[in-house]
Design a protein that fits this description.
OB fold (Dihydrolipoamide Acetyltransferase, E2P), 10 helices, 9 strands, 48% helix, DNA binding, membrane, transmembrane helix, LytTR family transcriptional regulator, LytTR_DNA-bd_dom
Length: 289
């Protein structure tokens, strides 16, 4: 596995694991299995042992399935447009390793046989489990939830020279004029769908920064820009929305560089090839350092 693919897989896995909804479902599923004691565990195991068994089994199974899902989601991103399909492939491929994991845990904790037939049987049981994990992971990242109501920081205007504190961001964007809502926001969790400030490339991901937070999305910068609305790419790794520009400044000696101060407090360089477009678009916000 190449280093970039490994890094992207780990980043994708971290994205899944930081979703509170996924942990809530995990806790509910483990609790349900502990209380009901399926597959004879209620009669065979005392409550503390049953709790430990199902906790270990589900933790190992979820880790195996989600790692496979994250890997294939990353591996096939350039070849397959549907994220759900990529995740389902990862879930199907995870079934044999899941069968092995379940068989080893059953052998160690329940003294059940460990052989090829048992592994194959557990792999068949694990297949719908892996598919369920992929659906849960996809739903936790999907944009199928209704939009949150726009708050006071959801309008478009910015005030050059304003402070970049959270309160100032909300005040600076409160112009009373509704924004043309970028479709890119539909990819974000509801609580982070604020006014779009900027985009930044990070490996195979795009960091989307809004007035309500930031989120990594697995997509190309060009595709993200196409959904981002009014703004300007200022560098091969950076795009800034019209609403996200606080000021422009010249920094340096004989050949000063142009720098964009964004509403979230970052100073981003403008590449020489983009300087004419940036000056044309935001020339009224230039100040000398």
């Amino acid at each position: 596995m190449s280093a970039p693919l490994l890094q992207s897989t780990l980043r994708e896995l971290h994205t899944h694991l930081k979703r509170p909804r996924l942990w809530l479902v995990f806790a509910l599923v483990v609790g349900l299995f502990v209380i009901t004691g399926p597959f004879g565990t209620y009669e065979r195991l005392a409550f503390p042992t049953r709790l430990g068994y199902w906790l270990v089994l589900h933790a190992a199974s979820w880790a195996c399935a989600l790692t496979s899902i994250a890997f294939f989601d990353t591996l096939l991103a350039a070849r397959m447009a549907s994220r759900l399909n990529r995740m389902l492939i990862g879930a199907i491929v995870s079934a044999p390793p899941l069968g092995l994991v379940i068989s080893v845990i059953n052998f160690a904790l329940l003294m059940r046989p460990l052989n090829a037939m048992q592994i194959a049987e557990n792999a068949l049981i694990a297949l719908p489990i892996g598919v369920t994990f992929s659906l849960l992971a996809w739903l936790s990242m999907s944009s199928g939830e209704p939009d949150a109501p726009a708050g006071p920081g959801e309008a478009t205007a910015t005030t050059p020279g304003a402070s970049s504190s959270p309160g100032a961001i909300a005040a600076a964007t409160d112009s009373g004029v509704a924004a043309d809502r970028p479709s890119l926001l539909d990819r974000l969790p509801v609580e982070k769908r604020g006014t779009l400030i900027r985009l930044e490339v990070q490996d195979h991901y795009v960091l989307v920064v809004t007035t309500r937070g930031e989120e990594l999305i697995l997509m190309r910068l060009a595709d993200a820009i196409a959904e981002a609305g009014a703004g300007q790419q200022i560098h091969r790794s950076h795009w800034v929305s019209d609403a996200g520009v606080e000021t422009l400044s010249r920094k340096g000696g004989k050949n000063p560089k142009l720098v964009v101060q964004t509403l979230d407090g970052r100073e981003l360089p403008v590449s020489r090839s983009q300087m004419p477009a940036v000056r044309s678009r935001w020339g009224n916000r230039i100040r000398n350092s």
